[in-house]
UniProtKB/TrEMBL annotation:
It comes from Sylvia borin (Garden warbler). It holds the Pfam family CTP_transf_1. This is Phosphatidate cytidylyltransferase. Signal peptide: none annotated. It is a multi-pass membrane protein.
Length: 422
């Protein structure tokens, strides 16, 4: 048993030593910033670069929010493709000397296949009325899953045909690498868009909470950090982690209060086939209607309030903010472990001072899954609008059958008068 452990340890060390060094990313900082910050130490120079670029990215994010839901979806898709590119590129750089046949082509082919499947599901789910009016789309939607499976099988067969005797194991490594990357990027981006359709607030509050936690944890760690948090990320400190937690919870509560007042943010995103536009108009649900709550006795003595007026969604914001600040960072720790395994500092050098796009969105992927699970578990109920769209797709005789069954049920419940029968 001891010999087996030693052999496994030696194998692990050998595998680590076999990984070639990846060239460090080049410095993409604009020359104007380099000259302006030339007199500062490396620590403060990085602080200012990160701060300026963070403000620029946040400003751009607000602009896209103003442009509407469709632009947000395009943003999510763009980020997904870029993150996928950064991870796949690492694999190519690490193993480039093997010159694997079709690796890059197959990687992008599988990305197209998976996106075709997920976005096709979204079109069938949310754009049923639009699809019904176009015969060519009806065929694609009716056989969507079969077409998706056929496309994937084509890629699978291409992979098998590309196998080379000397590199079987490495090629299967890359096959697994591609599929895990697809799971991390495409699946999560699909969930982000699903959350967006529930209402922009379910998109903005979680994403903004992660961004807030990332920024405030960095600030608290920069000025007050003394105690290391985790070995995977030596710069992370307990002071930054705790400061980021409290800041994020407060931010989420206040930000939710602001967003809950506007239909644009709280209404489900729906596609209007008559105007060919996404609309966010509705009667806000109870989650976004002001209610009076009793303050717990222990807090009454501190605050001096017996009751407080707030939106019910603000209570849910506590769950979202808590997850973003306590569990979300583990996505970043996971990414740090991945980078250490392949001896790289950042996924890319896309954003000066920040690294690649994946470096900035590593925590968002856990958040997207949590929000989706949270909505389906605690929030989402039957959706009459979506059900009606599905009914309109049915054949006339099927619609009539549904009508008769529903009418009979309503009569039995006493909602319709028996005199209306027949």
């Amino acid at each position: 048993e001891v010999d087996l452990e030693e052999r496994l340890h030696e194998l692990d060390l050998r595998n680590d030593s076999d990984i070639p060094d990846v060239p460090p990313p080049t410095d993409s900082t604009p020359e104007i910033l380099k000259r302006a910050l030339s007199g500062l130490s490396a620590r403060w120079k990085n602080w200012w670069i990160r701060g300026i670029l963070s403000l620029a990215m946040i400003s751009g994010f607000f602009l896209i929010i103003y442009l509407g839901s469709f632009m947000l979806m395009l943003l999510v898709l763009s980020i997904q493709v870029k993150c996928y590119h950064e991870i796949i590129t690492i694999g190519y750089r690490v193993y480039h000397s093997y010159d694997l046949p079709w690796f890059r082509s197959l990687s992008w082919y599988f990305l197209l296949c998976v996106n075709y499947f997920f976005y096709g599901e979204t079109v069938a789910d949310y754009f049923a009325t639009f699809v019904q009016r176009r015969e060519q789309l009806q065929f694609l939607i009716r056989y969507h899953r079969f077409i998706s499976f056929a496309l994937y099988l084509t890629g699978f067969c291409m992979f098998v045909l590309s196998l080379v005797k000397k590199h079987y194991r490495l090629q299967f490594y890359m096959f697994a690498w591609t599929h895990v990357t697809l799971l991390i990027t495409v699946t999560q981006s699909h969930l982000v868009i699903q959350n967006l359709f529930e209402g922009m607030i379910w998109f903005l509050v979680p994403i903004s909470s992660v961004i807030c936690n990332d920024i405030t944890a960095y600030i608290f760690g920069f000025f007050f950090g003394r105690t290391p948090l985790i070995k995977l990320s030596p710069k992370k400190t307990w002071e930054g982690f705790i400061g980021g937690f409290f800041s994020t919870v407060v931010f989420g509560f206040i930000f939710s209060y602001f967003l809950a007042q506007h239909q644009y943010f709280v209404c489900p995103v729906e596609y209007n086939s008559e105007t060919n536009r996404f609309v966010t108009e509705c009667e806000p649900s109870e989650l976004f209607q002001m209610k009076k709550y009793s303050v717990p006795p222990l807090l009454q003595a501190v605050l001096g309030w017996e009751t407080v007026n707030m939106y019910p969604f603000q209570m849910h914001s506590f769950a979202l903010s808590t997850f973003a600040s306590l569990i979300g960072p583990f996505g970043g720790f996971f990414a740090s472990g991945f980078k250490r395994a392949f001896k790289i500092k950042d996924f890319a050098d896309t954003i000066p001072g920040h690294g690649g796009i994946m470096d900035r969105f590593d925590c968002q992927y856990l958040m997207a899954t949590f929000v989706h699970v949270y909505i389906t578990s605690f929030i989402r109920g039957p959706n009459p609008s979506k059900l009606l769209k599905q009914l309109l797709i049915l054949q006339p005789e099927q619609q009539l059958s549904v009508y008769k069954t529903l009418k009979s049920h309503l009569v039995e419940k006493g909602i319709l008068q028996p005199s209306l029968r027949g």
